[in-house]
Amino acid sequence: MGIPQGTIEIDHPKIASITFATEVGDRADQMVEIFVELRDGRHFSFTVYTPRALEHLMRENGWPSLVDLDVMIVREIGLGPILHALDQMLALGIERFGLEMASEEG
């Protein structure tokens, strides 16, 4: 049950689409880059990790910590958990969490 690389239109009052930069497979230690287009025209990028993927990345690189602006942590990589996280971010001010990208028009 993976998610193909590409853009998925979202039926959501504030989110227009989510673009997956790479295909999402079934691995529990996977991470993926996503780009979120909001209905107000703003665009944000996130790196989505599962806890297992973060642990693997940190252990592999010998990092005692990881601090990054655009990190989203979900139990499993899928539309449901990602939308849940985005709803929380939108309620708190998404610009505090994601990297805002310049619009294609500007």
Keywords:
alpha+beta; 2 helices; 106 residues; six-stranded mixed beta sheet
Number of helices: 2
* Backbone CA Rg: 14 Å
H and E string: EEEEHEHE
- Quaternary structure classification: single chain
Mean pLDDT: 91
**Structurally, how many domains make up the residues?**
1
Low-confidence segments: none
Helix content: 10-25%
How far apart are the termini?
A: 37 Å
Largest sheet: 6 strands, mixed
Tell me the β content: 25-35%
Question: What's the number of extended β-strand segments?
Answer: 6
What spatial form do the alpha-carbon principal axes imply? globular
Strand pairing plus helix content: what structural class? alpha+beta
Description:
It contains 2 helices and 6 strands. The chain has 106 residues and is of the alpha+beta class. The protein has one domain (6-101). Strands 1, 2, 3, 4, 5 and 6 form a 6-stranded mixed beta sheet that branches. Helix 1 (51-61) links the parallel strand 4 (43-49) and strand 5 (71-73). The chain is globular, with a radius of gyration of 14 Å. The mean pLDDT is 91.
Short description:
The chain is an alpha+beta fold.
Set out the fold topology:
Elements: E1 6-9, E2 15-20, E3 31-38, E4 43-49, H1 51-61, E5 71-73, H2 79-92, E6 99-101
Parallel strand pairs: 4-5
Antiparallel strand pairs: 1-2, 2-3, 3-4, 4-6
